[in-house]
Amino acid sequence: TDFGLYEYQEEVVQRALRGENIIIWLPTGGGKTRAAVYVAKKHLENNPGAKVAVLVNKVHLVDQHYNNEFNPYLGSDYSLVSISGDCDQKDFFGCEVKNFDLVICTAQILENALTNQEEGKHVELSQFTLLIIDECHHTHKEGVYNKIMARYVAQKLKGERRLPQILGLTASPGTGGAKSIKGAVEHVLQICANLDSVIVSSKVYAPELKKKVPRPRKRFDIVDRRPQDPFGDHLKFMMQFIHDFMALGPEFPVREFGTQEYEADVVILEKKGVTDRNRLLAQCALHLRQYNDALLINDTVRMVDAFRVLESYYSTKSSTAMDGTDFFLLGLYQENEVELRKLSGDARFENPKMGKLQNTLLEQFVQGGHSRGILFSKTRKSICCLYDWVSNNPALQRAGIRAAILTGAGNGINYMTQNEQKDTIRNFRLGSLNLLISTSVAEEGLDIPECNLVVRYGLLTNEIAQQQASGRARASDSVYSVVAQAGGREVRRELLNECLEDLTGRAIGEVQRMEPRDFRMKITDLQTEALLTRQLAEQLKLKKRSRFNAATVQLSCRGCFLPVALGHDIKVIENAHHVNINPDFERYYKTGGQPALKTFEDWEPGRVISCAACGRQWGMEMIYKNIALLPILAIENFAMETPEGRKLAKKWKNVEFTVEEFNFSTYCHNKFPNMLD
């Protein structure tokens, strides 16, 4: 009674209260988390010595779940702790698990603890009696949820009985890209297999659920296509000029400039240029991608934003130009810079979507003095541009809009620290901010009851993301607006997503109607198949990693092709940081600014490093144990010369030679032999 559960919530938790593994499928705003708190409470009451872990996939959800749900209802009777990447408890996760009844953490922290064998940090799945997995539709492929559950399933198939009960929470498992009922059913069954759970939803009390969780009023705010776009046309003229310079044959057809498809083409061209040792092709492709980015930004936000992207890119190019290709590309931009600047400032040809977006925001914020909204856009660049536009728009400022950016946590100029994320969300909750301009980081789980406007701007996403974003509009008479160009792909995708949402519901219905015996057999078959597939993939991965002797692999800068290191110079620290221990390597790079990173347990960040010859950024320095200054390298910035030709890798896990663990004692002995003798 204290929980105030609705009857539909009581309905969906019944099987979990009997100890079964279940996935709760309720719409966004339906109270999945509150239902999970209730299950956790009953589990702790009925099982002396029980241990509960609540896993989330976004850092800001750790504090939200702790402060808003679990601690208010369980904190007086049980010991709870919240742990995320920016707190010290994560370094002694094993100890924290022993000391508390319920742990709320990001899934990656649990995954790290499962793999870390150090005492005080290691945990086993068998230490928990209940695992609550938020946004559990992410339990697939190589996601961290699925890595955790793969261990669970492997132990289950071996006959291990000391495994925790599973409670998954989702607003939509989606169709996995399937557009047929058969494919959608297979996807839902795979999610059930990955979580070793049945999927439950409200049947008896579905009318109450529908009444309790009204959908926001959806509308399409459509604008006509720009009648003229001289700025965009000039960019396309320059891109064609580069193509003529490249002299590509008919085997490389050019798709439409300013599209995602064209971007995919130039990515392939750059890779071909690097692997073929054709620097002209590689560099032209890199510059064409910048022009294509500018066209995409011109189509999304203001012309001046697109111009600034190019202006910033070329501001450093004159100091790193090294051959005729560089001077051609730099000269082309410099010859056209004045004209581009002039065209970008001509208000007659401004993006009409901006005017429509302004009207959409004003309509909601002028009529409602307490309005709160979230504006979703695709990229960090676009949300930075939108924030600048909102902050400097007189009409929006007069309407009292107080905006802030919300992006994912990470490194770099357009990322946020975890504390910055928390502060922004807290200020939005309190009302000192009333508009979040966000990437997809705010689509899932963000609980702001007062939010009454969601705008999707320039977005092409799947049905899960659409439902999640729509569910952020929680207040009564909320508006869900899609600002898009007439006949554009955004509208078509939104309409397709509505069909896929319906298909998801029908697929879940079919799965729920399966005979229990048939369902369990199917789940076991899928789990066995997945286990064998993972084992085979791991064998192939190990074989691939030992394909070449590290001493026979040479690393060259991806920007200028200069050989700078050998494979055996590279060592790995904590299975994460790949460093070059060769003291001669420092002559190949120059240092720049300090990255926005905190200090970690054993190391702190140094300066950004880049190629001394061409300026290509390579990574950053790390100061390890206050002694060793080591360059951390991102392999995507290098080409690898192997006995079988030049190869590329996006991640270190994809390289075809073995990288040995860094030995600190050996390093110190080699670096300071006299001091240690």
UniProtKB/TrEMBL annotation:
EC code(s) of this entry: 3.6.4.13
Main location: cytoplasm
All residue ranges annotated as the Helicase C-terminal domain in the record: 361-527
Domain called Helicase ATP-binding: residue spans: 13-191
Reaction catalyzed: ATP + H2O = ADP + phosphate + H(+)
This protein's GO CC annotations: perinuclear region of cytoplasm
Keyword terms of this UniProt record: Antiviral defense, ATP-binding, Cytoplasm, Helicase, Hydrolase, Immunity, Innate immunity, Metal-binding, Nucleotide-binding, RNA-binding, Zinc
GO terms assigned for molecular function: ATP binding; DNA binding; double-stranded RNA binding; hydrolase activity; RNA helicase activity; single-stranded RNA binding; zinc ion binding
Gene3D superfamilies for the chain: 1.20.1320.30, P-loop containing nucleotide triphosphate hydrolases, RIG-I-like receptor, C-terminal regulatory domain
Highest taxon of source: Eukaryota
Domain (RLR CTR): residue spans on this chain: 543-669
Cellular localization per UniProt: Cytoplasm
GO biological process assignments: antiviral innate immune response; cytoplasmic pattern recognition receptor signaling pathway; immune response involved in response to exogenous dsRNA; innate immune response; negative regulation of RIG-I signaling pathway
Pfam families: Helicase_C, ResIII, RIG-I_C, RIG-I_C-RD
Family: Belongs to the helicase family. RLR subfamily.
Designated name of the protein: RNA helicase
Organism for this UniProt entry: Oncorhynchus mykiss
